Model the fold of this input.
Amino acid sequence: MKQLSHVDGQNQPTMVDISHKASSEREALVRAFVQFPEDAADLTVGGEICTKKGPVIATAVIAGTMAAKKTSDLIPFCHPIPMTHCKITIEIVDRKALEIQCYVKTHGTTGVEMEAMVGALTAAATVYDMCKALSHGIVIGPVELIHKKGGKSDYHREVPVDLRR
Done:
């Protein structure tokens, strides 16, 4: 039976001891979607959404990158890690949705899934914040780990997402 890694023998929350792990290349890719209701669709001009707060996509990329670097300050049992790369891309899927991808890489003793997750979610939350004056009907999701490499196991998801549901 699988055990939770962040719970000790006395069933108390704890940070995982990674001192015995070998250092290796580790990477993760997370994607998140931001879906706009009909009354807020068709906002993009030349690949950007511009509001009174400024360029939405460019700001979301910066916010997501900053958040990925601060993951251990936000998630209690995440180890601070030296990220060697963080790349956030935001693409317009159709007139009513954005796809955000956050790719993070390190050479270390623990994975970077949470850094990629926090980066993608923060970028999505930034889009929401900058566009909420247009509509509070904006939806963030789904958010999912697409790829993880390094450590005990690798993972890859091949699941297309239908945003028309």
Summary: The chain has a mean pLDDT of 87. The beta strands are 24-35, 44-45, 48-51, 54-55, 83-94, 97-108, 139-149, 155-156. The domain at 24-154 is CATH 3.30.70.640 (Alpha-Beta Plaits). The helical segments are 56-69, 71-74, 113-131.
